[in-house]
Amino acid sequence: MRRGAERAVASEPPAQPHASPGASPSPDLKDRVVSALKWSAAGKLLGQLISWTVTLYVMRRLDPSHYGLMGMATVAISFLMVINELGLGATLVQRKNLDELAKRQVFGLVLMVNAGLFALLFLAAPWIAAYYKEPEVAPVTRALAFQLLMTAFLVVPQAMLERELDFRRQSIVFLVASLMASVVQIVLVELGFGVWCLVWSNVVLLGVRVVGLNVIHPFLKLPVLSLRGAGELARYGGVITASRVIWCLYGRSDVVIGGRILGKTLIGFYDAAMHYATLPMQKLGFIINQVALPAFARIQEQPEEVRRHFLGATRALAFFAFPVLWGISAVSRESVALLLGPKWAGIVVPLQLLSLAGPVRMIANFGAPVYQAVGRPKYEFFDLVRMIVVMVPAFLVGSSWGVLGLSLVWFAVYPLMMLLNISINYPRIGVRVTDMFRAIRSPLLAALAMYGVVALVRALAPEGLGPAILLPILVAAGAATYTLVALRLDPGLRALPRALFRR
Questions:
Q1: What average pLDDT does the segment 65-80 reach?
Q2: Could you tell me the residue ranges of all domains in the chain?
Q3: From CA 271, how far away is CA 262, in angstroms rounded?
C-alpha cells in the first residue's frame, strides 16, 4: 500500500504518457494495464507454484514449533517493514510530475530510516524473545533485521518500474529470486537447519530482488538528506505510514497475543494455517494491487472511469479468489493429510475458517491502492482505525479458545467490519454497497454451490478411500461445479481469463 506525492521543480517527462484530465483512458493505456497484469500474474503465479511446492515439502520436514518461532520473530520485522519507506515509494508512483531531486530525497530518507530501524531491532531482539519466553527468537529476529538494510536500495528502482507499468522485467527478477530462495530452503532443511531454512530463504528472496531490480533499473545517485521542498511528499507519505502502522498492529496482533498465551507449538499450528490459507491471497492480491496504484493514478481525475474500473477489477478478483480460497477450505482435510502428514492435523479446522474469510480480505484490501491513487489515503486510515478498535479486543477474547478462537475472529468478526468500512467510504469514490454485491454475486453463489458439491461427493464416497484418490476427485468435482454455475449466472465471466492472456 503505497502512494506518492512530491513537488516538481525541474520535472522530467514521465516515462509513460498520463491521461489528460477529463479524457477517457487511451487504448494504449488499457493495453499497458492488461500487459502489466499479464506479466505480473505470470511471474507471481509461476513463483507461487514453486513456493507452494517447496513450502509443502518443507512443512513435512519441520515441526510446528519451527513455524511458531518464525511467526514470533516476524511480527517485529513485519511491523518495521511496513513503515520503513515512510510511504515515500508510492509518492514516486502516484505523482504525475517527478524530478531527480525528489527521487534522491526519497532514497536518502529511506536509507537513514532503515539504518536506524535495523539498529533498533538488532538491539531489541533479546527483549522480544523475553516477551514470548522463547530465547531462540532473538537470533532469528537479528538475522531477519538485515532485510531492513537491503530494502533501502529497493524502493526507488521498484517505484520507477511500477510508474512505467514495466512488470515484465520485475516478474523475471521475482521468479529468479523465488527459485534461488527455494533452493536455499531445500538445501538447509536437508542439512537439518530447522527454523533457519525459513530465515535464510527470506533473506535470499529479498536480496536477489534488490540486486536484480538495481541491475535492470539502477539508481546510482547520491542520496539527498535534506527535506527542503519535500513537505507535500512527507505529508502524503505520513498518512500512508500511519495506515501501515495500524494495519500491522491489528493484522499481526493475533500472533502477538496468541504467541504469548498459547506457546510456540500451538501458535505454530495457527501461523502455518494462516500461511497456507493466505498464500494465494498474498500473491493474487499483490498482483492486482501492484498494478492498481499506477493504473488508477492515471485516471484519478475521472471519477466515472475510476468507479467503472474499480467494479470491474473487483469482479475479476472475486472470480478467481472465491474458488481458490473456498476450494482450499473445502478440501482442507484431504489436502493436509496427503500433502503435510498426520503431525499437521491440528491445522485443518483453522485452515477451513481462515480460507473462508480469504476472499473478503482480498476484496477489502483492494480499496487501499485505489484510495491512494485518487488522493484519498485518509479513507484507508480511518478504515484501519475502526479495525484495530474491534479486532484487537476480539483476538484477546478469541485466544481463550486457543487456535480455533483466533481463527473464528477472522471468520466472523472481520467480514462485519469490512462491510461497515465499505458502507462508509466506497460511496465517496462513487461505489455503492449494492454495486459491490452485484460485482461479486455470481462468484459467491458459484463458490457456495462448489462447497456443497464437494461435501456431497465426500459423503457419497466409499469408506476407506484414501486422500490420494479422494482429493483429485473432490477438486475435479468442485472445479467443474464452480465453472458451470459461474458461467451460467454470468456468461461474461468467461472473457476474464481470455482478456488477461490474449496479449
A1: 84
A2: 27-498
A3: 12
